[in-house]
Amino acid sequence: MNVDNSLSPHGGVLVERVEPRPDRDALARLPAVEVREQIAHECLNIAYGFFSPLTGFMGSADVASVAETMRLTSGYVWPIPIVLDVPEAELRQAGVGVGDTVLLTHQGNPLATLEVSEIFAADLTELARHVYTTTDPAHPGVQRTLAYADLFVAGDVTLVCQPVINPPFDRYWRTPRQLRSELGEMGWQRAIAHQTRNVPHSGHEYMMKGAYMEAQADGVLVSAVIGEKKVGDYIDEAIVLSQDNLRSHGFFRDDIHRTTALLWDMRYAGPREAVFHALVRKNLGCTHHMFGRDHAGVGDYYGRYAAHEIFDGLPDLGIRSVLTLEWWYCPTCGGVAYEGICGHPDTKQDLAGRLIRSIIDGGAEPAPQTLRAETLALVRQCADEYGFGSPFVTERYLRERKPVLTVPASQSRH
In terms of pTM, does the model score above 0.85? Predict the structure, then answer.
């Protein structure tokens, strides 16, 4: 099932499930379940329409259909189950059953209500096998799946408190409706999305510029993933601020480059997650999405360009894929080179991993062919301001960082 208009949200209608003035007394009478940060993010993504056409956490039929066929029972393509896992003992203690309305709290405060339509168990190993094509517990997505609680709770979600997005992320977070309006005001009829969870090196910059020209786009929308972190990742603040730094220093014209933040905990599901990213960015108003080497992959679980190949077997999703090969530094060419053009693959220097991290950790200024000096300066500033001295996630950062969002004590009426 597809919608012809490429500017339409997935499913044709932008989901919005927000109650601006809920009854505080009525909420206080509901059984309550406290949810972790990942689930809080997904409540927002459902309620504001990032996950259109989803209106809530999936039931057993949709979970099975998505896992096995990459489609919802409605027929729309959807590649990753969106589920709410809760321990059976917690549900029993709260007295929650099918047909109940449950208050989902975060940071101890009301966040959303859930209309419970189903409570069910799933074979977690089989779920991981379908979604990740492996049950290897070393895969971070498999780890996440096998760690789910013993029951899933399905039902429609309604946001009853709009969280405060804390600085510096507040400058970059927009709901799909807000972002669609902004893109329209800027005249972006062809917007190409760039998914990232990294500080941008020159390969990323050239990838964006090449995809922008290939798509004949009006602008590049950088969609920086802000979510669950592990030690050694880039800190979230450095990611989003360094991406915007490319525009503010003129490496992209101001009218063709925007940075936004997406609250999403990466699953590292490779090609399936590439499809998911395309659908979410379609909901944001993008007409194109760029995909490079090993998109959303981890280790060697997926082919180098598996994220390119998966779209060959799917119907028209209403958002076009712009598929790019690798950009690297070629000392023979004397600059950043493209895999599809450069004839010196034996002497290439990958613009990723240890090379970029060694530049950031070291004292020398980088060559512009690897990492912009302006980017390096900003990343080091972020280390001091947000990362307790490091631009990479540390145990202290995980313990003491300011949260991305804060749920206020109350925004409801009596």
Answer: yes
